[in-house]
Amino acid sequence: MQLINQSEVQRRIDALKDEDLYIHLEMTTGAYAAHLDSSKHPAATFITNAIIRYSHGSISGSGPYRVGLKMMQGWVYSEGLTHYEESETSRLILAGHDSQGKLIVSLQLSRKPFGRGVEE
Amino acid sequence: MERHILVVLPHPDDEAFGISGTLAMHIRNGAQVTYACLTLGEMGRNMGIPPFANRVTLPEIRRKELEASCRSIGIQDLRLLGFHDKTIEFEEQELLDERIDALLKELNPSLIFTFYPGYSVHPDHDACGAAVIRTVGRLPKEDRPPVHCMAFAKNLHQAIGEPHVINDVKDYLKQKMASIQAHRSQFQAAELLGSKKLKDKEIQERFGTERFWIYPF
């Protein structure tokens, strides 16, 4: 993963618009958040391989970044994104990592379903 | 006296702390006010204490709170523009600008209030202010009403100087506190006020002044 290059990510968002895509959208505070700091409220949520289609999408901010994708009947929104996978040219892989490198948030889009680590 | 004031803000409750006293003052002096609120604040995290709202009921609850807030300020015309909370910066600019331009044409306002783009902390605030400035900026110079902006970023004074308009709204604290109280899912007004009365010095100092920057086109 590399630090986000905003114009490159925007180009990739534009390249994926107006088609059915599989999305992985995730946010987590980490399962040990409350164990390490009792004032923290551990929470996590993800959705994998739901199908979405957006007509208009953009990345904004000055890092960490925000992404908004406008769909026919709603929105996909993600805040706190710091990294993208440069080598994944047909999919969009975005994530936000905290100062210790731990993943806090991820937003991924692909024309094919996301697998379980084994790519066909 | 202002003839017609147009207020454009993105969230229900954006009017409460920074501008409700000023609007009450203008309304007392005979102004008509149209408040265009871009979203219903449906992504807000405050659900009341203890929570009485949830993600599904929040939009309708906040719409009613906004209507109550407008009644307590005396705002005659509330427009809900139906955009989605947190998405203003991602929204198609032409669509935003079109809606604002239609209001300018319909109302021909003598004064506009919004957020100062770049100095209003929340991305929706900045994007709302930017849309208003873009749209008003397209009018011929002689047709442009003044735009008074709220701002509260940390680096504010170095960047845009001291506020140009400082309104003493101590005579309108009743309307202002009622506006804040109306947003009961968002603010714990009782805690803000505590056992203090509106005439208390602390309350007057904290809520009695509203500041605006005139946008330099």
Automatic annotation (TrEMBL), chain A:
<protein>
    <submittedName>
        <fullName>DUF1806 family protein</fullName>
    </submittedName>
</protein>
<dbReference type="InterPro" id="IPR036492">
    <property type="entry name" value="YojF_sf"/>
</dbReference>
<dbReference type="Pfam" id="PF08830">
    <property type="entry name" value="DUF1806"/>
</dbReference>
<dbReference type="InterPro" id="IPR014934">
    <property type="entry name" value="DUF1806"/>
</dbReference>
From TrEMBL, chain B:
<dbReference type="Pfam" id="PF02585">
    <property type="entry name" value="PIG-L"/>
</dbReference>
<protein>
    <submittedName>
        <fullName>Bacillithiol biosynthesis deacetylase BshB2</fullName>
    </submittedName>
</protein>
<dbReference type="InterPro" id="IPR024078">
    <property type="entry name" value="LmbE-like_dom_sf"/>
</dbReference>
<dbReference type="GO" id="GO:0016811">
    <property type="term" value="F:hydrolase activity, acting on carbon-nitrogen (but not peptide) bonds, in linear amides"/>
</dbReference>
<dbReference type="InterPro" id="IPR023841">
    <property type="entry name" value="BshB2"/>
</dbReference>
<dbReference type="InterPro" id="IPR003737">
    <property type="entry name" value="GlcNAc_PI_deacetylase-related"/>
</dbReference>
